[in-house]
């Protein structure tokens, strides 16, 4: 498995301004008298099966909180039935949430009346669907222009704007076709163009590429990465595919049974899984493609700061391996001409093997090696890294 | 019979008793053992007890008298029904005059152009040929009368049906309320609709048009609702996510997405309207149906055929053209042929007017009298020859009349006498047992109540007569239909050969089937049964074939891989897996057979159908209405008895 990491445009907001979406304590419960479940702490704490047998209700989203920052790709990832699709539909109230708060740019979404909500859907958040949701009786151009038509934009103007977007997603020459005459990948391009045509503040993707062939899927992922790097539009991306999440996401919320089990950068998810479920999930990820030298480095000794190949802090382990192997010596991690630390064979191998190394001290020996560090120390670094808030990583990363 | 509703004790029963069928039967047996002696002692056995009947003929007669007396004076008639009636007459007349003004050339040109726009060149040629054939048979004027009536009836049906369907498609409550009504209307024989309309409007064109509308609107309503409800939920969600209002969603997504169902609804409505417009000749519709009706009344097969052929041609052309309009725009979306574009419509109208003017100037507006082909004479000669040579006494095989006679003596009479000999409560018991075994206790209850209602109406004997004809016809239909269906499912050659025949047979109005059977078998109960068999057979064959062919290919393949013979595959895999389709075939067979057996009353089938026809002919609406109600009950009972359980399907939905 290879994970070609695209040039990821990092979040532009250096200082935490108002988040685009702010979700706090969100619940969606399906079933009779759903409202009592979030309200009652005893019911709210029940596991899914017991909740169903006691109340006949299913909690699809349980007490979820997160912020989506301006310009980032926020990925919600989880297996089928984890509540991720319900969650994204709650954002624009395509599904009415049961409890909790949602705000877009600080405005309470749940308090919106019909007109205001329509306004939100028309101009501020557009969605791309798993099975495209195209209108089979309209041409590609009219499908793309549909959102503008709903807004009441005149025929010639909306067609003109739609034609621009059609070109942007690479569908020139197919404007007159109907969805039935397109391949799956082309149809999803139409779906993407339809969402882009209304020039929304946020794009919501609901497993957009799950129904596509692997090769087409990769094309489309690159298309989205390209669009994001060109326009810097905020995106909320739902997927069940871990490699897709790692590839596209600035931050990932991993969901299980309606709850967010871990929220962090791809590196945090892979490098320090919050629990056994996440660990099992990320077990097969090629860690050297996700982890950066910043987490793997150790403090440099005095003579090491002067020589050896130089790496950026956000360089991946895979890049570091190449540099270290060529140089035959530890590589320096340089930021603005300052040496933050060094990585050598031990650290790199430790990351690839998935063995926690003690980054804070001298080169750590692998656990299983003779004379290994005492067992209790194993837990300590993991705990520490987990506690690391994502903020310090994002700010120096800004270019 | 409320005790039938008692649920079977399903728990704590050992061994084979746990089977639900056994449990149901045992429950019924217990109820029967308890009730039968009681009922027997109280009202005796044999035919339906007189004490339990309600004589409706007096109140009905007085009601009909009241209507007749007040038709010209009561405000309800003056200001409501009167306006409807006048509007219908006016509209039919206007359309008829327009058609006549266009002349035969104009109408033919218009039909061909429309067919060309929506269905291509071949169907355009077919349409022109069919219309010219109607003229050549000397039936131009009756054809135009039928067409005029149909145009008005179809427009009204589509409007009513689409509105009802729209309401049912948008409101869940209305859908729940409407669906059982529409489902039931679909299984009732056309004849049952005639009398209530006649009661209000009297015999004539308004009654015929309204009966047609009542009969033809339900499929439009059903399919409209189905189309609106069947729209891809993800498309609708996408539309909503873009911030569409309810109105926008309906106009830009739901209705266009339901296009296929809407056009199918139009197709079915047109076909049913034609079928009914022909039958409605009994209540004064005029046109082609009337010619057939009059000819059959005097057993003039030649004249009946001359009017019957245009009916068949109209049916085939209308079906093919509207079906092509529906299938022309699939997902592939090739909509290069349509009549909807304004310029296309303008061109079509322009050409029609031009042709009409040209023929008028040439003085050939009416069908040239020299160009008609009289087929009645030669056909009648052929029928006479058949009567003389084939009816009886043909060595070894016997004659057709002999067959009909034998069928009547050896099958119909024993079945009828047997049914009428059965104690009345045992008939109810059999109905309950059958419907409960196949369906749920609800269907069983409806079936038993419907059957009891027949007894209460006091038409127990004629109803059992009709029932005996239905049973005999269904038995023959199923034997032939299943055999043909299995053959067609197992051989592509047979299916290819059968398909065009089935296509044509399924589009023909019920009435037409009476013509050939009268030619072959004369009049009586046997011809009615024969017509019913011929009418119901195509549907049964088609459903059987489709059911068997749609059996899971993986299951069939695994059976083949285990070395099953063709016979084993059929009996152990295909037929068990196609059980639902086969039950549906039985249900459809029963419903279709009943419809024609009732119409068979016009050619000596007797029983309920005759009562209706007699009531209409003699103006004795009370008799007719009672028989009509009995037909409704019988249709309801037969449908419920053969209705496969829908419980699992409902749960899934």
TrEMBL record, chain A:
The keyword Acetylation does not apply. Residues 46-282 form the ABC transporter domain. GO terms for cellular component: membrane. Keywords: ATP-binding, CBS domain, Nucleotide-binding, Transport. GO terms for molecular function: ATP binding; ATP hydrolysis activity. Signal peptide: none annotated. Residues 358-399 are annotated as: Disordered. Belongs to the ABC transporter superfamily. This is Glycine/betaine ABC transporter ATP-binding protein. It comes from Streptomyces lucensis JCM 4490. The lineage of its organism: Bacteria, Bacillati, Actinomycetota, Actinomycetes, Kitasatosporales.
TrEMBL record, chain B:
GO terms for biological process: choline transport; glycine betaine transport. One of its GO terms (molecular function) is amine transmembrane transporter activity. One of its GO terms (cellular component) is ATP-binding cassette (ABC) transporter complex. InterPro entries: MetI-like, MetI-like_sf. Residues 143-322, 463-642 form the ABC transmembrane type-1 domain. CDD domains: TM_PBP2. The chain crosses the membrane at residues 76-92, 99-117, 123-141, 148-170, 190-217, 269-289, 301-322, 343-363, 421-438, 443-460, 466-489, 589-609, 621-638. Keywords: Cell membrane, Membrane, Transmembrane, Transmembrane helix, Transport. Belongs to the binding-protein-dependent transport system permease family. This is Glycine/betaine ABC transporter permease. It comes from Streptomyces lucensis JCM 4490.
